[in-house]
Amino acid sequence: MDKIRIAIVGIGNCASSLVQGIEYYRGKASHDAIGLMHWEIGGYRPQDIEVVAAFDIDVRKVGKDVSEAIFEPPNCTTVFCGDLPKVGVPVRMGCILDGVADHMKDYPESRTFLPSDEWEATREGMVLALRQSGTEVLLNYLPVGSERAARFYAECALEAEVSLVNCMPVFIASDPEFAGRFERRGIPIIGDDIKAQLGATITHRMLTDLFRKRGVKLERTYQLNTGGNTDFLNMLNRSRLASKKESKTEAVQSVAGERIPDENIHVGPSDYVAWQNDNKVCFLRMEGTLFGGVAMNLELRLSVEDSPNSAGVSIDAIRCAKLARKRGQGGVIRSASAYFMKHPPVQFTDPEAYEMLEAFIAGERTE
Hints:
Layout: E1 4-9, H1 13-24, E2 49-56, H2 66-69, E3 91-93, H3 123-133, E4 137-140, H4 147-160, E5 163-166, H5 176-185, E6 188-190, H6 200-213, E7 217-227, H7 230-234, H8 242-253, E8 265-272, E9 279-289, E10 295-305, H9 308-326, E11 331-332, H10 334-340, H11 350-361
Parallel strand pairs: 1-2, 1-4, 2-3, 4-5, 5-6, 6-11, 7-8
Antiparallel strand pairs: 7-9, 9-10
Helix pairs in contact: 1-9, 3-4, 6-8, 10-11
């Protein structure tokens, strides 16, 4: 098989887990590939993904080989494949715009971003870099709240005719204007806001769907999350949190059957706890009414390493973007977006989205 040539924007914890994962699964057989949702998609395995370009703004990462940059501060995720060969791709200076929140400078250097003083990427330079590297899929791992920066890179993907996998909660695929432009250009896009392999949102959604199917009225619910990575530190600025809260809340509301009143649902990050590093702890409570009007409630605590929990989903999304391009399908890949993302253009239950995705992979469904 040919390689899937990807560029990564944001060499943080998620990128670290992805790059480690590509090497970790290299040479493994399907029966030994624990932790993947799909071993093959369209004939492509994880090791068929090749990083050909990378962009960040941190002085500790810019200029370093990707295999080294992923272990630089403030990255703090689990190292499960530390002995990486050189990728041969240096991290280039990206475009800052609103990618760094002002409050981040008030925290220790080991925890925050240190912007490089190199010249920032221009749109023309970014497009040229994508074209010269032969990038096929651009993966957006920018921090939450980077609205202008996310749109900058989406515009670059359009101009360079590169597929886009938008892993962050800025609404690109679910923006009809942006989605229409990708469709008219015949460029696949999957988004928005990646849904972890088994995280807070997917668990909350599945339980909400279970309540509905079992005839239990969900009256009130909350999802409180704590973590110690840069994502949680960044989200202490509540003004950057609007799209994230909307994305996570709508992911739950969309499977509730009857919409829960706004005052009775709270879904979103709660606080930054530095010593948790990349470990995310979710506290979930659901209160409902059973047969005869009898009350019940459910409480759950979930602890996961945040970034590896999303990397396997990214590996699948990248391969679906490649598969769509090979088939000549442009615009939003709705099945992949519904299954892999919290805020797709059209919401489906996860079992429905799973069936749609499997049909797409098998070539039985066009987008």
